[in-house]
Design goal:
heterodimer; A: mainly alpha; 2 domains; 3-stranded antiparallel β-sheet; 13 helices; globular; B: 273 residues; Cytochrome p450-Terp, domain 2; 5 strands; 6% strand
Chain lengths: 264, 273
């Protein structure tokens, strides 16, 4: 008897065990046998790329994604998203809440995934045209009515750090490594034009900006880059939440409170 | 970079302290909430009173608080088919914690075609439209312009149903009983609906528009409205979690392998491109 179709997918095919329609005998990801063939032959980033783009990555793209995954894995305990995960860890909140906290705080338009999204939109519009970037930022800086959204409005050119002084060394290191993988890439162009781009943006390049360029080089759409950025930064959040859970609240500051205005 | 940078100075001023304009707790002593002592000033306050004070810094009349509460009540559906509620039910079925399940369901409520994404846009649209009309602007061309620019009108039309929104009559009736159904934003919301119907644009007002109009008439900005409706669905989510958790684990919406229609690439041999 034919089964009713409830979901549709171009990603995943599961074949059932002969004696149980709810148990998977074989799973295919975009046509590739996951447990029969990919296992042992494909890496984590191969699977990640395949899931999102529907095709196995080239060696160059797998290498770029691998590099980016290592670069983004841990923003460190000073980062707001990791700090949020540590807030979950310190009080003994569930593991999932630590990651949910990191995702929520790391989702925003200032150093988070929404900024990656916006920077990737800029790459789609401007690509390797420095004048197009200048015009875009000039236009954005001009007071105008922006459609309201659940996200607070953008406050600076996406991919650049409004609180920075110069390009931080790790940002330059990641950009240099990505540039070595492909001389024609957006990353390579960004490295070659870094000074002009920073001058036009008015701020130094940030890791968000490098990630956005790298995701664009990987053929990702802005929404795909946004999702991967959220995902790839979770390992550090998890590790620091676990560490904080173990070290307890006495090694986690409660901080001084400074009330302003009439709030006190 | 050649520019002078004051970012590190700004950051340094905030190291090691929380600067707050909204209050804080003085453990063992008292709590200040936007300049008021929580346990004395709000000792007999309704929770909605405090909730809205936290968002706006303003207090509302008893009738207004009843309406704010009713707006939530009338859209609390314990129906686990609804996408955000389904998250709460799935969490119950997989024996996740209730807090995680409902938190995730609330996060999912920030959708583009319903929930928070519509709420903020509907409120913004009504407030801007009222300003436009008040300045002598014409309604029809403004609405058509909005539709052309954004391809939809937040608060008008409804996914999954073309029938009249079942929440409208109850909330409008209740608002009337409180004397809160005569505000300019609500009148405008009805005028927009009339225009859409007369123009054969096949859209009627949904709860998003009416709720936004009612709160705009009570003085909420679009962003305040967005924050106020944050918990609007929560009363319907908890029963979905509880119901699924009471049933055998894993039995909420089980899917046999054959129920997922695969429309992707044919089977192929693994190799990197």
């Amino acid at each position: 008897m034919a089964e009713t179709t409830y979901l549709h997918s171009t990603i995943w095919l599961e074949e059932p065990e002969p004696n149980n329609a709810f148990a998977c005998r074989a799973a295919y990801c975009h046509g590739y046998d996951v447990y029969g063939e990919m296992l042992g032959n494909a890496g984590w980033v191969d699977m990640l790329y395949l899931l999102v783009k529907g095709e196995a990555p080239s060696r160059a793209r797998a290498a770029a994604l691998e590099l980016l995954a290592v670069a983004l894995a841990n923003p460190g305990p000073r980062d707001a998203s990791v700090h949020a995960a540590m807030c979950a860890g310190v009080g003994g909140s569930p593991a999932a809440s630590a990651l949910m906290a990191a995702l929520a705080v790391g989702a925003g338009g200032s150093g988070g995934a929404r900024e990656v999204f916006r920077a990737m939109q800029a790459w789609a519009a401007c690509d390797k045209d420095i004048e197009a970037w200048r015009s875009r930022w000039t236009e954005q800086a001009t007071p105008h009515h922006e459609p309201i959204d659940v996200w607070p409005a953008a406050e600076h050119p996406a991919g650049f750090d409004p609180l920075g002084v110069d390009t931080p060394t790790p940002v330059k290191q990641v950009l240099a490594r990505l540039t070595q993988l492909d001389a024609d890439s957006r990353c390579a162009w960004l490295q070659a034009n870094l000074s002009s781009m920073e001058q036009a943006a008015g701020f130094p390049l940030s890791m968000v900006g490098v990630a956005a360029a790298a995701f664009a080089d990987l053929g990702m759409l802005p929404e795909e880059g946004e999702m991967l950025f959220l995902l790839l930064r979770l390992p550090g959040a998890a590790a620091h939440a676990l560490e904080q859970r173990a070290s307890g609240h006495k090694q986690f500051p409660f901080y001084e409170l400074e009330l302003e205005g009439t709030s006190g | 970079m050649s520019h002078e940078r004051n970012g590190p100075d700004l950051l340094r001023q905030n190291v090691g302290r929380v600067k707050s304009g909204v209050g804080g707790c003085f453990l063992g002593s008292h709590v200040m909430f936007r300049g008021m002592d929580l346990h004395s000033e709000f000792a007999e306050a309704r929770w909605m009173d405090l909730y809205l004070f936290g968002i706006t810094g303003r207090r509302f009349s008893s009738a207004q608080l009843r309406l704010f509460e009713a707006i939530w009540t009338y859209t609390s559906y314990p129906d686990a088919r609804i996408w955000n509620n389904r998250v709460a039910a799935l969490a119950g079925s997989t024996r996740s914690s209730g807090n995680l399940g409902v938190s995730a369901a609330l996060a999912v409520s920030e959708a583009a075609i319903y929930g928070r994404g519509i709420d903020i846009r509907a409120s913004d649209f009504l407030i801007r439209t009222r300003a436009h009309v008040a300045a002598g602007g014409e309604l029809g061309s403004w609405v058509r312009g909005e539709l052309a620019e954004r391809r939809s009108l937040a608060g008008y039309g409804r996914p999954l149903s073309s029938r009249r929104d079942e929440r409208l009559d109850p909330i409008l009736s209740f608002a009337r009983s409180l004397g809160l159904a005569d505000g300019p934003h609500l009148q405008l919301a009805h005028e927009i609906e009339r225009f859409l119907v007369e123009s054969r644009l096949r859209m009627t007002a949904n709860y998003g528009a009416i709720a936004a109009a009612l709160t705009a008439d009570m003085g909420l900005s679009a962003r305040e409205h967005y924050l106020y409706v944050h918990a609007a669905f929560v009363a319907g989510m908890l029963p979905c979690y509880i119901d699924a958790e009471a049933r055998p684990a894993g039995t909420f919406l089980p899917l046999p392998c054959g129920s997922v229609a695969y429309q992707g690439a044919p089977k192929r041999t693994w190799h990197r491109a």
